[in-house]
Structures are given as C-alpha cells and as structure tokens.
Design brief:
The chain is α/β, with parallel strands linked by helices. Helix content is 43%, strand content 12%. The chain contains 15 helices and twelve strands. The structure holds flavin mononucleotide (FMN).
C-alpha cells in the first residue's frame, strides 16, 4: 500500500488499523462524554466560507511568525505526551516540522529529550505544566534554555479528569518483557507496528526524560503524573514568577476566558493558545473556535493568539485565522501521521494543511494569510461564546 494519504481522516483510519487498540485509544483520548471533543470538530463544519470567483490572487503567501520564530505556514506542532507510538517519536516529528519550515512544541511528558529534539529542529518551544516545587520547575526551564529552546509553553488547563463513557485504555507503566507478553495478543495482531520497534531494537518508551532530576533517572510517565497531582495549582503570582525566570517568549496554553487572557498577558505571557486541550479535560467546555474571537479581540493586539483543537484540514486553519488567530497548533492530526508513517507521515499532514490553506486562500481571493478576516466566513447565529 502506498504510504501517502490524501486526508487526515485516511491517516486516522490507517493508524487505527496499525496500532494496538489501547495505543490508538490513548491518542484518541477525549474525556467523560466526549462532548468537547466532538464540538471541536463539529464547530468547524458549522462555519461556512464566502468564496469569490474573479480577481483571485495568483500568488498566495502563508508565512507568519509565532513567539518571534518565522514559520512558512501558520500551523505549528502542539505538544503531545505519547509519541512513543513510533520508535523515533518526537525526533521524527521535529524533523518533519523543520523540513516543512515550522516550529515544534515539545511536551515535558515526551519520550525523547529536549536536546535530541532541538538538534532535529532548532525552532522548538518547550512545554511545561506546573508540577513540582519552584526549584524543580526552574531546573527544567534552565535545561530547556541550555538546550536552546526558542520559547516556553505553560499549559494550565489540565483537570485530572478521568473516565470515559467509551472506556479508557489500559497502558502498562513500563514495557518490560512481562508486560510485553501480557500485551502480546494485542500487539501481535498489529505486526507492522511491532516490526517498526523490532527494526529500531527498542521497546516503546514510557519514561519522561525531560523530567529527570539532576543526577537522577527519568521518571516513568505515571510517576511524573503522581508528582503533578500532588502539586498545588499555580496562582497568577506563580505564573508571573515563571515568566520572569524564563525571561523569553512565553505562551500560556489552555485559555478560554477573556479575564484569564488579560491576566495571563499582565503576568508576562507573550502568546496565548485558545484551547481546551483537544477535549481531554473539562467536558462540555465549548469548541475553542467558538471563544477564539472574544479572546483575540481582547488581547490580539498585544500578544500572539493561536488556537488549537479540532484542526484536521487546511480549511479549518483558514477559518481560525479569519476568526482572529495568528496561527494554529495541531495535535491528533500529526499524531495520526506519525503513527502511520513516521516522519514522512507528519510531513504528509503538514503538506495537506499547506495545500488546503492554499485552496481556501485562492477561493477567498486572498494573497496572504494576513488578509483573512471575519468577512470571509459566515458565522451562524448562536455560534460564538464569550466568557
Ligand atoms: C494524546 C494527546 C496527548 C497530549 N499531551 C499534551 C501535553 O503533554 N501537553 C500539552 O500541553 N498538551 C497536550 N495535548 C493537547 C494538545 O497539545 C492539543 O491541545 C490538542 O491535541 C489539540 O486538539 P487536536 O488534537 O484536535 O488538534 C495532548 C493531546 C493529545 C491528543
């Protein structure tokens, strides 16, 4: 079968066939009833384009910048934690992003080190949660700085929600021989996936090398999660402290409310991601695109406002830009590409985004992503939210 896929939906179908059931479900994620997950996707279908037919532009420019980094298309890699779905994981994603001229967000729960990832893509933003003491957080920042991270992403919308009406996957803490045998029936029904690890002489890595204490060993994913659960959530003062310690471009990720957006900017954020964590958190939060305009109108002239959640095609990117985002971040879209075909799969997804953005710009009569505005899209009554 040819490895190239024509849409993200096709990549997702292939990932489902290729991955063991629990691994596929971990990427699909979602929470509780899945209302937010679904709305992130449905909301884009409810927005309609208002195309033109003449005086269209023969040349269309997609370049922009986020957090001081120039990118060749308005799509960057959102940080995600479980890229051990492929032996090269985050390094493959970083290379793909570099080859396609865009930036990489690297999760602190990633399976590959910040040093390896920055070697593959110098335009990397390191993502942290508020977990551990201030001293420990500072050590992580300093490590990311020493590695050359171009910016920091502070994700603040995690609620430790668990339980999904469709069932949560069982994932082993470490893939030892014992758990490998336990999972063998599922893994053996996915020989291509297993073979990709056999070829790299490694087992899926469920440790978090970016959370290693100085001189210590990398905690397991669940060990790191335990520390986080025991950490008191941050105040605005804590966030301002982190912004000052970092002293460089800082994105606060997970913003829904206008008051929070303003406080994040006052606390030192230079960028915001309007996001509900891809529907993995507090279920029945509306689709992020619904409250993007309220946040963009409040602070878009002061900081870079990006959106993530539900982007599956170039047209979705164009709608988000028309509603006020400077760029978008993608999560599952590239994870399906990675699971299906490693680095090439992620490049394939970025190419699909670029192609779709170009078609939409052509149809809307724009020569640059910077010309997009609310006029280009019909927003149905009752669509928008403002908190
Ligand atoms: C499997 C998975 C793991 C994720 N891990 C993280 C993470 O470690 N840090 C973070 O800030 N966001 C994380 N996210 C959220 C993404 O960065 C992003 O907000 C979300 O995936 C966007 O929605 P989309 O998948 O519909 O594009 C994760 C999302 C998924 C699906």
């Amino acid at each position: 079968m040819a490895k190239w896929f024509e849409t993200v939906a096709e990549a997702q179908r292939r990932a489902k066939r290729r991955l063991p059931g629990p691994v596929y479900s971990s990427l699909l994620a979602g929470s509780e009833k899945g209302v937010t997950y679904d709305d992130n996707l449905d909301a884009f279908s409810q927005l309609e384009f208002a195309p033109r037919i003449a005086e269209l532009s023969a040349e269309r420019d997609q370049s922009t910048s986020v957090m001081g980094v120039d990118i060749s298309l308005p799509v960057i890699i959102s940080p995600t934690g479980v890229q051990a779905v492929h032996p090269e994981g985050e390094v493959a994603v970083a290379r793909a992003a570099a080859n396609r001229g865009t930036a990489m967000g690297l999760s602190s729960f990633a399976s590959r080190s910040v040093e390896d990832v920055i070697a593959a893509n110098p335009n990397t933003f390191f993502q942290v949660y508020w977990t551990g003491s201030r001293e420990v957080i500072e050590q992580r920042l300093e490590r990311a700085r020493a590695a050359g991270a171009k910016g920091l992403i502070l994700t603040l919308d995690w609620t430790f929600s668990y339980g999904r009406d469709w069932g949560s996957p069982k994932i082993p803490e470490r893939l030892s021989l014992k758990t490998a045998i336990e999972f063998a029936p599922m893994a053996l029904s996915r020989p291509a996936w297993l073979l990709s690890f056999a070829k790299s002489l490694s087992l899926p890595d469920l440790t978090t090398p970016n959370l290693t204490p100085p001189g210590g060993t990398a905690p397991t994913f669940f060990g790191a999660y335990g520390e986080w659960m025991q950490t008191a959530p941050p105040s605005w003062k804590d966030i301002a402290w982190l912004a000052e310690k970092w002293g460089g471009p800082l994105m606060v990720k997970g913003v829904s409310r206008v008051d929070d957006a303003k406080k994040a900017v006052d606390s030192g954020a230079t960028a915001l991601s309007v996001s509900n964590h891809g529907g993995n958190n507090l279920d029945t939060t509306p689709a992020a695109i619904r409250y993007l305009p309220s946040v963009a109108q409040a602070v878009g002239d002061k900081v870079d406002v990006v959106l993530d959640g539900g982007i599956r095609r170039g047209g979705d990117v164009v709608k988000a830009l028309a509603l006020g985002a400077k760029a978008v971040m993608i999560g599952r879209a590239y994870l399906w590409g990675l699971a299906t075909n490693g680095q090439g799969g992620v490049e394939n997804v970025l190419d699909l985004m670029r192609g779709g953005i170009d078609s939409a710009l052509l149809g809307l009569g724009k020569s640059s992503v910077k010309e997009l505005s609310m006029d280009d899209v019909h927003i149905p009554d009752g669509f928008l939210r403002s908190f």
